[in-house]
Each structure stands twice: as structure tokens, then as C-alpha cells.
């Protein structure tokens, strides 16, 4: 059964290739992509169930035993994130035909899309540091393809910055992997963890850990490294922004979470304290950015950053509760950001502008979109009983239990400002006088509403139905805080 | 009780359906059933033998979040208010709101609010409490913004939301601290552990967080500013949310937690201090309002302050008086809001300057208003409930049997004077309200329509409330034992029995306080116009509204300034920030964690050919900086690449050398191809500072990488796993070239996806080039 | 020798970064290319240099150099080739469309 672990990577890879081959027949590609996403979601859900019943699935690719070959580790955390990825993917694949022009679709959107899903899933599943680099490259390359899709002037302008900064961090990534290899003689994450533990992370190891943190922090958009993010997420098509906003930064956060819960955990006073500071700064600067603009897409994009701050805060506090908070927030944020990016994309399309100052009274024309947006807004701000709340109370509780009052207060204020920045869109854009001359595009709005509603539904479920998810997250948090579980399950000592 | 909470919510789901028939039957009639049946259910609980009980339903048990519903005297009192006033308000709204309004939305929000409010008062679980607490803020936001085409509505909605959610978040902080300290999520269990809480080091934070939550919700000074703007909501909403129920949630919170918190002197100082301040400020400000609902809003603020102050005293009589006043306030203020609504509805304005002499046109409404205002003013008449609670308030404010010291002592001394001061203005605005509207001359020109008495349906609700005023006034002890005593007990923790009397004899100080209020109040009210300059003097620049506006404005403005200042869009800046961050932190970590000595590692010998290649590469790489010719630059880059290939040969990596050679050639070709079409390299004309800065950053970064590399190299503490590859390449991998075996077998997955990357890159490039052609054809 | 190659790699990084901090796209891309050369050299160095024969199993030979870094470099070279080619075409298209290859003129502060 351990072969299961490779399916979430392989299915999208093959689907992407087939989609490229079928490129001439766009309608067929659409149907095919939808079916394959459904299949993939089904398969991952099954794996999730299987892991839930029987524990992690660990695949030694090519039959090379750990730590020598590349190991895929389908533990609960990885699988949960892969499932979430596929849920977002499914929503996007439904949204895509309505949002993309036919030309954009025919320039291999679906191939890039599947490659992105494959890369993201691979990054979640792999248990090998160098392999993680490779999957990062896969997802980045796919994202380069997606961000330039459409070929607008602004797209090229912003994407070149995006590519360059990511390229820089990739180069740093391989280099740091080699440093680590020099010290511990392996690239298998479990074995690295084991060996780092043996020498108690002495000497150069912490520095290497910090460098690795910077590599992932660049992808995750942590405070002094997120400059590339806002504008480059605004320029592509909404469906692409949604994929980016929901998945890319989260891969970075996931990697930090893995590295700094199973490997670099012996200098917590230094590393994790640093994370707390950075988390606070990330929250503040992120939300300040969100308040600084009237472009609705940019507001949502900036709101990625404080969320990253929240998750980093959980890692920094480093207790069972706070890590559970980070994991919960991670899942929540993937779903809600996906929904929000699709929403603002839809709003900008329907209103004909993404400038908030030029909109008003949209609720009279598009009530469903308006209310979905309202729910997504308050979910994002962490108002109960929606999903943001569960993650947030865990994080805050974790912080308070460790006497980190300062960061908790920052977190609370940030939540308020997030709400402010988002509700502004609702008040200015949706409320107000009905514009009688406005010609609403109702069928389009309805078409947009379905995939968005699907994501919002999940986000509500994550809050109201937390009982179905939280015990799993709690278990994950337990496992993360005890590296030996991970090490033993991979190395089978 | 769970039904009580969720019944409104469930009906709310069907409202969109029901409201489709709104033209045949007003949606309100369906809604009316809900609060009424809950009221009937709750009223059955009232009785002397009532004892608190609890019910638990699981929600998220793994996080210790349950629907722990707890019904004691306090929650029963609030439950009855919510359902009782709720019934009347819905009834009133049926006549107030025309069928052409968006009734579906209105009742949806209203029911949502009702659910939330029941949730707040019945929850014993702090998380559930918080959930419903925020839900009340949200529904209030939606209700204030109900007429969202008005600018004022939008402004008021945002303001109320920001302030109450701010308080809500702060309260969440306090509640979380409580759960951490006591390790339980149940309020009752927390109360039983009050010693632990008192002695915990976080006690100060708990108090601060919780009070902030309560004060914002109950519109205490200086957070009161949202309430007047919330008056943009339809009048039934103002009567319900912003007078009778939601704003009392803060009072409820303080009352709920006072068994825990009231032990501390700070409780008295903060709660009473802010309460009494709010009382004075609110009543003083009310006098200068011109909008009927504005007067009522400030009046509500001051009355809430009064209740808050009494809770802060925490004596038996004060707690009892607080409970009593919660009930009384709901009756008279509810009726007054409805009267204001009627006036607005029938005359088309709420501006008191345009009103006057309405007595003749609306006798019933006027009568109702007289009862309401005189009760509010605390006029000593035996059939006005307001007088009794005002007397009790004065009695409590004297603070007998209350020993404190320090600042609290000072507060204790001045509180009675402040109480009288505040009450005087209460009297003034009450008189102003009723006489200004119903007596005086009728200003025909100011009104668009001729006023007339309201339909009977609209009058029913205020009549019921005024009857409440009179009945409580005539029989003040009617609900004492069966009802109020339970509520007071659940706040104070001990049994409280109190007989309310109209007449205490001549030697009671409260009597003289009351008389002083009436006497001075009458004079001031009569001569109000002369004082108008005094009323307008104080605020203005002092106004907290300005602080709020300033904060909101500046937050956005400064955000823009800050963000624009570093998000310049310049790649150079971004790279700089990133590099500096990495440099600072990494060097810091190096300094802190590594003893900066290089152990003598096992090094390879330095060979002459290696050194030649190395120096060539150094020269070439530095030359890329200085050359100003693009072809030269590309070729020099090629030199570095080929140099690397030679190094690969020297260092026994034939496959690498081969690959590097091929790829370098292709890359150089590509470079040349692409950059033939681009502008030529310009001379670098940067300032010396920039050059120096860039050079420093680059050199430091290169140095950092070298340092880390050397340290890593000299810390080879483990055998590399690659020995295994060497051993098994032939036996298991079936190949002699180990690198190849690794690539295609052991790390086959890497290779597979490496090819995938190439494939995607190819498609991306194809897309970019093809798209240009398509555009070119146009 | 490892120290020498480490320093060389450091220099490659330094010159790469310096180029990255320039305005013109061509220089910037040259900078990234230099850095990836530096990275590859680092990887090779970390696996120890010249400690035996090339990792092609020949009977009778006991010592081989570490093959794993070589495999990693090979993967990395191919990937950076892919990215660099993409980047080159992107740079070409971007500067053509925007009419400049000066990154300082490609800031874009307006609210799109």
C-alpha cells in the first residue's frame, strides 16, 4: 500500500502531460482536467482515510531503502495538506474556463496547473531535502509559466522580478543543502534530524538552519523578504492568483514547520525567538500594506502576509497548542485565501474595475457574490464560528500560556486591522446606492459563485465542524513535537 | 435552552423564502412567534423556588468547547429582556417598516442577533460566549447598515463594528488567559477557582482585557462614540439592540465575572470610575443633542454608566439596584425609543428644533412619552419605576460599609457628588426631550406632512412598556423575591433580600439628593437656552469622535506612506533588503553559536593546474562587472562556465564536465541570441555611495557563504551515505557509473521531475514566443 | 584546495550579487548565472575533492570521490539551465514590450 504515496504526485504529472498533448481540443482538455482533479481528490481522500486508519504511508522510491533512496512520507500532516491542495485545485479548475480567455487556456494553462499541483503535493510529501528542492523548482517553474500566461505588459514586468528573486533563493537553497550534506553526510530529512540530534545541533548547524529558514521564508513571504509578492500576485489572471495565494506561500511555511519541528529544535531560544520577532513584524507590515491601497486585489494579496505571520508565530512559540494552531491556520488559510482570490477576481471582473473608489452598491446586482465575500471576510479575520477562529485561538492560547503577551496583543490588533481592511471592500464596494444604469452580468456571476461557494463551504466547515478536524491536527502537532516518531517511522530503526 | 438559542437562527434560514410573500403577509408576523414563545418558556422559570441549572451539548469537545448552557437569575433576567423586548420590537416593526423595504434582510439580521444574544447570556463556556459575542457585533453591523445607501449608516456601521470587535478581541485575550490560569473553559468552574485567578501573575492582564471588552460593548467612556452613530439603524433596532439588549452585554459580562474580579480594589476603581464618568459625560452631552434619537443615545450611554458604576460598588444594595435598574431602563427607554420612532414616522423628522406642540396631534404618544421621560428623570412619583432605582442608586453611591484606601478612597468621596451631578443633567435632557417635542409651539412650516396619531398597532408595544413602568412603580416589590433577588444573588454570590420602599422618612440622604436633582434640574431645564453656550463649550476638539476619525484616517494614510516608501517596485531595493536581512541574521547566528575556530580539516592538496583555472575564473567573474560590451560580458561569463567544466574534470567528475560544457555552450548561444535584440550595455553611472554599498553587500555575502562553507567542511561529523551507493551501484543498480546509477535509479524521482521542469520551461518559452507572433499578426 | 574553491565560490557569489544589484537586465541575468556556478562549485567542494578515482566502478580500485554531490549538481545544472533559458526569453519579451531593459524603469508604482 505504500505506493499510494506517489499517486498524488504522479496523477497530476501524467494529467499535465496528457493535457499538453491534447492541447488542440480545448473542450476535451477542460473535461479531462475536471475529471482528473476529481479522481485525484478522490485518491488523496482515500489515502487520507488510509493514513488515518493505519498510520503514515512511507514509500521508498525505486525500492532503495531509507535513507539512501528518495523517501516519500505520507504522514497525516502531508496528506491533509495534499487534500486541501486538491480541494483548491478542484475549485480552480471549475473557475478557470469562466475566467480565462480561450487563448490563455490554449497556452497550456492546464498543463502548468497540473504541474503546480504535482510540485506542491510533492513538496508536501517528500522526505528528502534535495528532492524538496526539485519539487520547489517544479512548482516554481509551473508558476513562472502561469504568471506570464496572457503576456500582458505588466505581467512581464512583475514576473521578471518574481522569477529573479525566486531564482536567487533557489540557488541559495541548493548551496545550503550541500553545506548540510557536508556536516551530516545525508540529505534524507529523517536522518538529518537524527544526526543533528546526535550532536545537539552544535557549531555551524544552527547557522545552516537559519540560512535554510531564509530560503523558505522568501517563499513564505516572511517580513523582510516578501517584497516580491504583492505586485506579482496581482497581475496574473484571478484563477492563477488564487492558486498562488492559496498554495505557494504555504509550501514555504510548511517547509519551515517541518525543518524547525523535526530537525533544528535544539537551539529554540535563538531560532524560535527570532521567529517570534519576525512573526510580529510580518503581521504588522503585512496588514499595514493591506490598509495602504484601494486596489481590491492588492488588499487581498497583502493579507497573505499577516497570515504568514500568524503561522510563524505558532512555530516560534513552539508548544503543542501553538503548533496545532499553525497547522490549523495553514489549512484554513489555504482554503480561505483560495476563495478570496477567486472572489476579488470575480468582483473585479463583474464591476469592471479593481479600484475600490470606483465601485458601490454591487450587492444589489450580485447578492450571492456579496454575501460569499462577507463570509470570507469574517472568516479571514478569525471571527467565530468560522475556520479562522479555531486556528487563532490555538495560536493566541499558545502565546499566552508562554507569557508572550506582547505578540498576542499584536496578533489581536492585527486581526482587527485585517477585518478593517477587508470590510472596507464590503462597505464601499457592495453597500451604497444602487446604480440603475449598471448592466449586471448575472449568468457570469452565477458561474463564478459555484466554485467560490464550494471553497467557502469548506472554510465554514473547518470552523463549525472543527470536531472532525481538530483531533487530527492535535495528533499532528504531537507528532511534530516528537521528532523521534518521524525519524523512526522513516528509518525504521 | 439550546432551542431558545437556535430557534431564531433556524427560522432565519427560512426568512429568505418567507419574505417572498411579504406583500400578502408582513414577514414580521412569522418572526413574532419566536421571541414570544421563548418568552413564555422563560417566564415559567420565574418563581421563588428557582434554582440555577446547567445543560451541556457537545460542539468541539476535543478543544473543550461545549454548549454549556447555564440558567441562573442573571441569565434569566437577560433572557426575559431579550425575548420580551424582542417580541414588542418585532410587533412594533411590523407597523414601522413598510412592505416595500427589504424585510427579508431585516428579520434575518434581527433573528441572527436574537440567537446571538441568547447565546451570550446562556453560555457558560467562554469560547461559546465569545462566539456569540462577536455574532452580536456582526448582526449589529448589518442592522446599522440596513439602509446602507445612506452615508451615515455606512459610517456608523463601520464604527460600531471596529470598536466592538476591538473590544471583543480584547475580551478573547482575557478569556484565554482565564482558561489558561484555571485550566477550564466553564465560567462557573472559574468562579469556584477565584483564588487561583486572583493570585495569578496575569490577573492585571485579565482585568484589563475583560474590561476593555465590556466597556466597548456597553459604550462606556471613551468608547461610547459608536452608539450615537449607531442610531442610523431603523428605530426598532435602536430600541432593541442599542438600548435594551446588546449594549447591556458588557454589563452582563462584568456582572458575570464580578464574583471573580470584584475582590480587587482595581475592580472598584475602574468599573465605578469609568461608570460614573460615563454617567456624567453621557447626560451632559445629551442636553446639546438635537436629534431625538441622539438624545436617547447619549441618555442610554449615561444610564449604562450608572449601572456599571453600581456593579463597581459591589455592595449588596448596589448590585440589587443595578439589577433593578437593568429592568427599569429596558421599560422606559424602550418605550421612549418607540415614541421617537413614531414621531419620526409621522412627522418625517427627528430634529427637535423642528418639532414642538405635538401634544395636540398625538395625545397618546405624548402621554406615553411623559411617563417614559419622568421615569427616566427619576421624578419622585410613586407610579414611576425610574424613581425607585434612582433612589437606590443614590443610596448605593453613598457607599456605606465600604472601606478602601488610596485613590479608591478619593473616588469614594466624590462619587455621591458625581452621581447627583449626572442625575441633574439626566433630569434636564428628559424634560428637554418631552417638552421640546410635545409642548411649545407647533412649527408647521418645518414639517412636510401634517402629523397625526400613529396606528394602534404601533402604539401597542410602547403602551405595554409604559404599563410595565407603572406596574413596577406601583408594586416595586412584585418581582423582588421571585426574580430580581436571584439575579442579584448570581452576581454577588450571596442571597440578597431587599424591600423597595417609596418613602424612607425625612432623615434619608437619598431623598435630599433626589430633591436637589429635581430642583436644580428644573431650573436648568427651564433656562436651558441660556446655557446652550456652556453645553457647546466643552467638546469640539475634545471630542472622541475626532480621535476615532483621526485614527482611522491616519491608519490608512500612514499605511500608505509606509508601504509606498519601501514597496518601491525596484528589484534592486528588494534584493538589497533581502540581502541585508540575511546578512545581519546569519552573521549574528554565526557569532552566537559557532566558536570561530577552524579545526584542521582534511584538505586536498593545492595543484598548479587547479590554481590556474581558479585564477582565470576569478579574473573572469570580476571582469563581468567592469565590461561595458555585451558580447564581451557574455563571453566572459562563458569563460567562467568553461572554467567550471575544467574544474569538474580535475576533480574527477567527468559526467559533470560533459554536461557543463554542453549546457554552457547552449546557454551562451541563447544569451547571444536574446541580447542581440536588446539595448546595448550602458556605462554604469552610479554614485560612489551606491557602488560602495553594492560592493560591500556583495563582498559580505560572498564572504558569508565562504565562511559557512569552510565551517561546514571542517565539521564533517558523520560518514556520508554515499559509500552505500559505491557499494551497491553494481550489485543492485546494475551500472558501473555510480553517478548515473544514482540519477536514474536511487534518485530517479529527482531526475523525472528535473525533466518535468525542462518540459514546463519549454512550454512556457513556447507560449511567450507564440503569443508574440499572434500579436504581431494583428 | 577546498578552502581555495570555497573562496572562489564565494567570489562567484559576490560578483553575482554585485551584478544582481545592477539596473540592466543583462547584467542581472549574468549575475544569476555566476551565482549558480558558485553554488555548483560549493556542492562539489562539500563532497571533498580529489579523494580517489572518478565514481565509475572499476575492479581493483578502492577509493572513489563522493558520487552523491555530483548527482545533485547534475540535477541542479539541468534545472538551472531550464530556468535560465526561461528567464532569458522572459527578459527579452519584457524589455521588448516595455521598451527598456532597465529594471529601475520597470518599477510600476501606479495602481493597476
Automatic annotation (TrEMBL), chain A:
Family: Belongs to the CPA3 antiporters (TC 2.A.63) subunit D family.
Molecular function in Gene Ontology: antiporter activity; NADH dehydrogenase (ubiquinone) activity; oxidoreductase activity
Highest rank taxon of the organism: Bacteria
Name of the protein: Cation:proton antiporter
Pfam families noted in UniProt: Proton_antipo_M
Enzyme class: oxidoreductase
Main location class: membrane
Places the protein is found: Cell membrane; Membrane
Domain named NADH:quinone oxidoreductase/Mrp antiporter transmembrane: residues: 127-417
Bilayer topology term: Multi-pass membrane protein
Record GO cellular component, one term: plasma membrane
Assigned keywords, A-Z: Antiport, Cell membrane, Membrane, Oxidoreductase, Transmembrane, Transmembrane helix, Transport
Keyword Transport set for record: yes
GO biological process, alphabetically ordered: ATP synthesis coupled electron transport
PANTHER family, A to Z: NA(+)_H(+) ANTIPORTER SUBUNIT D1 (PTHR42703:SF1), NADH DEHYDROGENASE (PTHR42703)
UniProt EC number: 1.6.5.3
Membrane-spanning intervals of the chain: 6-22, 29-49, 69-95, 107-126, 132-151, 163-184, 204-227, 239-262, 274-292, 304-328, 334-351, 363-384, 404-427, 448-473
InterPro entries: CPA3_Na-H_Antiporter_D, NADH_UbQ_OxRdtase, ND/Mrp_TM
From TrEMBL, chain B:
GO function terms (MF aspect): antiporter activity
UniProt domain NADH:quinone oxidoreductase/Mrp antiporter transmembrane: residue ranges: 123-400
MrpA C-terminal/MbhE domain sequence ranges: 695-771
Membrane topology: Multi-pass membrane protein
Xref: InterPro entries: CPA3_Na-H_Antiporter_A (IPR050616), MrpA/MnhA1/PhaAB (IPR005663), MrpA_C/MbhD (IPR025383), MrpA_C/MbhE (IPR046806), ND/Mrp_TM (IPR001750), Nuo/plastoQ_OxRdtase_6_NuoJ (IPR042106), Proton_antipo_N (IPR001516)
GO terms for biological process, alphabetical: proton transmembrane transport; sodium ion transport
Compartments, as annotated in UniProt: Cell membrane; Membrane
Main location: membrane
Domain (NADH-Ubiquinone oxidoreductase (complex I) chain 5 N-terminal) ranges: 59-107
GO annotations of cellular component type: plasma membrane
Domain of life: Bacteria
MrpA C-terminal/MbhD domain sequence ranges: 616-680
Keyword entries, A-Z: Antiport, Cell membrane, Hydrogen ion transport, Ion transport, Membrane, Sodium, Sodium transport, Transmembrane, Transmembrane helix, Transport
Entry's transmembrane regions: 29-48, 69-94, 106-123, 130-149, 161-182, 203-225, 237-254, 266-284, 304-327, 358-379, 414-435, 456-475, 509-526, 574-594, 606-626, 633-651, 657-679, 691-713, 751-769
PANTHER family on file: NA(+)/H(+) ANTIPORTER SUBUNIT, NA(+)_H(+) ANTIPORTER SUBUNIT A
Similarity comment: family membership: Belongs to the CPA3 antiporters (TC 2.A.63) subunit A family.
Protein name: Cation:proton antiporter
Automatic annotation (TrEMBL), chain C:
Any one of the GO CC terms: plasma membrane
Transmembrane segments: 6-21, 28-47, 67-92
Presence of keyword Cell membrane: yes
Any matching Pfam family: Oxidored_q2
UniProt keyword list: Cell membrane, Membrane, Transmembrane, Transmembrane helix
Endpoints of the signal sequence: none
Domain of life, source organism: Bacteria
Record-linked InterPro entries: CPA3_antiporter_subunitC, NUOK/Mnh_C1-like
Protein's recorded name: Cation:proton antiporter
Provenance organism: Pontibacillus marinus BH030004 = DSM 16465
UniProt lineage: Bacteria, Bacillati, Bacillota, Bacilli, Bacillales
